[in-house]
Please model this.
Amino acid sequence: MAGRISIDLYMTLDGVAQAPGGPEEDLEGGFAFGGWQAPLLDETIGAQVDEAISSMDALLLGRKTYDIFAAYWPHQLDGENSGIARKFDAVPKYVASRGAPDLDRWRDSHLLDGDLAAALAGLRQRHREIHVIGSIEFCRTLVAEGMFDSLNLWVNPVVVGPGKRLFPPDGPPAELTLLGAPITSGKGAVLLRYGWAGPTPGTGLVGA
Model:
C-alpha cells in the first residue's frame, strides 16, 4: 500500500502560519509576532505533536523551512527537545526546491527534484508516513493540486494580522472534507484534519 502524505501546520485564527515557533524563526516581511504559538502550548497539543512525529518515517520540507530546521534541530540532540530532534535526525529529509540547497548541514537530506507528482509517488513507494511541517509556500502547491492525504491544521485563538498564509486571498480554490472529529486543547486551539475533495467548491442557494 502506498504511503501517506500528511501536512502539519499551526495557524492563527486569521490564517497566518508564519513563525509559530520563535521570534527569530522567520522575519520575512517584517513579521513581528514570531513565537505566537508558545503561550498556547499545552499537554493536548504536545501529545498530538508527539504522536505525529513518532509515526513519521520521512520528513518533506520546502527550501525555507529546511534552512530553518537545519540550522536548529541538528544542534538539539541533547537539548530540551531531544526526542523530536533525534527523530528528525533519524529519518530521511527530502527538500522540494528548484535551487541547490546546502544539504550537507543535516544528515540523510535529499533534493526532491524533477516532476513533483512523480517524485511524491516515489516517496509513497519508499515510506509509510511522510510529514510536511511548515513549508507554507510548498504546502500551497500540495493543497492546490490535492497532493496530500491529510491536512492537519492547529487553529489557535490569536489574531496577528499580516503574515504568510496557506490560503492567500487570490486562491486557488479548493474543496476539503473533514476527517474525523476535531480535537480541542485546554487553551482553545482546535486540531482540524482535512482531506482533498476537489479543486472547485460546490455552490448553491442557501435555504433553497
